[in-house]
C-alpha cells in the first residue's frame, strides 16, 4: 500500500528533522504522516513537540489534546500537556494536572523533579524549593535529579528578585539647594 509506505517515510523524515532541530521542516512531515491512522498518534505527539520547540504552544496544545482525550491516564501525554499549558501561561492549570500524577507516583523521582519545575513555572518558588529538598533527601544520587540544583537556584533567584522588586526604594531624597 503506497499510502502507508509514504506515511512511514513522512514520519521518518519528520523524526529526522526533529532530531537535528529543524522543527519547521519536521512539522510539515508530521502533518503529512498524521493523515494515516497507523501514524496519527505518534505524528500528533511529534507535531506537538516540534510546534512547542518553535514557540507555538497553542498549536502544540491543539495537536496533543486529541491524544489526551483518547487516553487521559497516559503520563507521557499528560506530562507534555501540563508543560505546554505552563508555557502558554496556564501554569496553575498545569500544576493541578501534574500534581495528580505526582501524587500517584510518589516513588518516581522524575515525577517529583518535573512537578518542581512546574511549580517554578507557576511562580510557586518556595514550594518548589521545599519539594527539591525533600526529593534530595528521599532519592540521593538519583539520575532523574541530576539538574535539581539548577532548578533550586532558579527558584531562589526568583524569590530574591521578587523581594527586591517589592522592597521600597531606600535612596535618600536629594537635599534642596539653599539659595
In short:
The chain is mainly α and 179 residues long.
Written overview of the protein:
This protein has 179 residues and is an all-alpha fold. It has helices at residues 2-19, 23-33, 37-53, 57-70, 75-87, 91-104, 109-121, 125-138, 148-166. Helix 1 (2-19) runs antiparallel to helix 2 (23-33), helix 2 runs antiparallel to helix 3 and helix 8 (125-138) runs antiparallel to helix 9. The mean pLDDT is 90.
The chain-level structural class is mainly alpha
What series of H and E elements makes up the topology? HHHHHHHHH
Major sheet details:
none
Distance between the termini: 95 Å
Number of strands: 0
Strand portion, in percent?
A: under 5%
Shape annotation: elongated
Features:
179 residues; mainly alpha
Task: Outline the secondary-structure elements.
Layout lengths: L1 H18 L3 H11 L3 H17 L3 H14 L4 H13 L3 H14 L4 H13 L3 H14 L9 H19 L13
Helix pairs in contact: 1-2, 1-3, 2-3, 3-4, 4-5, 5-6, 6-7, 7-8, 7-9, 8-9
